[in-house]
Specification:
Blueprint lengths: L1 H26 L1 H12 L2 H8 L1 H22 L5 H7 L6 H21 L4 H47 L4 H11 L4 H13 L4 H6 L1 H4 L3 H16 L3 H50 L1 H4 L1 H4 L1 H24 L5
Helix pairs in contact: 3-4, 4-12, 6-7, 7-8, 7-13, 8-9, 12-13, 13-16
């Protein structure tokens, strides 16, 4: 019996193992698990897979998140980027050398005139740090103003080219040959960047890094979304051109309405200087103590600092962003 029981038990064990392994296949359990997994997927994923519109919306949201993250990362650009945004073709080493030379020259000049070490350090710092950065900001604003003046016409050129059957890249090449600066150079960079293998949507998105304006951001978003999600590019760019012209019209209206406040601020800022000049013309000995006496020079320096702070505050109060 023991010799017979051993083969029976072995057979039962082998049969049980075979049954456990083969039963899901024979009973169709694997197919049932696959169907259950499909049913258990999130409803949004199933709807997105079945609805092309939802899928396109998800792609647009992903593109907007990528662009927003990129723009947040470029909120504080390095000095070389600021030089490029100002339209200057110099290196940051050249910029630092020129700024240092200007600051040292002003420091030595003020020190030789006998205004004291403290005033010389303050004016040298202003000439070596504040003045170069202000110059970069001024050149950047002037270049952005020129860009905005002709950007809607450039977008209209792209719209007409796309409606005529030209590819987007060929329409961009038309802008590089017919548009004024800085439109020409910026779109030439886009074309050159695309020719080295970077997708045209990403190349247009980089326009915001060189021209940090909402209008350039809109253009990069529209082209990037169209390249990823598809759609009517001419219609999207046509709507963008309308938005750009409306923003330009609104900006001109705001500037016209704020001119009174700007004129008042300019008069208030120029009043102390005008009074000082008039007093000097009428009583030179009375006001000359401001630059002949050490205490007077210190008072004059502090007055200039507070006056500059007041001008800065007034400028911020009348600077309307939209």
């Amino acid at each position: 019996m023991e010799a017979l029981a051993l083969p029976v038990l072995v057979s039962i064990a082998i049969g049980g193992a075979a049954w456990a392994l083969l039963y899901p296949v024979l009973a169709g359990r694997q197919k049932a698990e696959q169907r259950r997994a499909v049913i258990a997927r999130p409803a949004t994923a199933v709807r997105a897979a079945r609805d092309p519109q939802r899928l396109r919306r998800a792609q647009i949201e992903e593109t907007l998140k990528e662009l927003e993250a990129r723009h947040k990362a470029s909120s504080f650009p390095p000095i070389q980027t600021q030089i490029a945004q100002a339209g200057l073709d110099i290196t940051k080493q050249t910029f630092f050398m020129a700024a240092g030379a200007a600051g040292l020259a002003v420091f030595l000049l003020v020190l030789m005139l006998g205004f004291g070490l403290l005033i010389a350090l303050a004016l040298g710092f202003a000439a070596g740090v504040g003045a170069p950065l202000w110059t970069l900001k001024y050149l950047k604003k002037r270049r952005e103003a020129k860009f905005l003046a002709h950007f809607p016409d450039a977008v209209d050129t792209i719209v007409r080219g796309v409606k005529a059957g030209l590819p987007l890249l060929d329409s961009l090449k038309v802008i590089t040959s017919d548009s004024p600066e800085p439109i020409r150079s910026e779109f030439k960079i886009i074309v050159q960047t695309q020719t080295i293998g970077i997708p045209i949507g990403e190349a247009c998105g980089k326009l915001y890094e060189r021209i940090p304006l909402p209008e350039a951001n809109f253009f990069g978003i529209v082209v990037g979304i169209q390249q990823k999600a598809g759609g009517n590019l001419s219609e999207a760019l046509g709507n963008l051109s309308k938005v750009l012209r409306d923003r330009k019209r609104m900006k001109a209206k705001i500037q016209a309405m704020s001119m009174e406040a700007k004129a008042s601020a300019a008069i208030i800022a120029a009043l102390p200087v005008a009074v000082m000049i008039l007093v000097y013309l009428s009583s030179p000995a009375y006001i000359s103590l401001l630059w002949t006496d050490p205490l007077g020079r210190l008072m004059l320096a502090f007055s200039a600092v507070w006056m500059l702070l007041g001008v800065f505050v007034m400028k911020k109060m009348i600077n309307f962003d939209f």
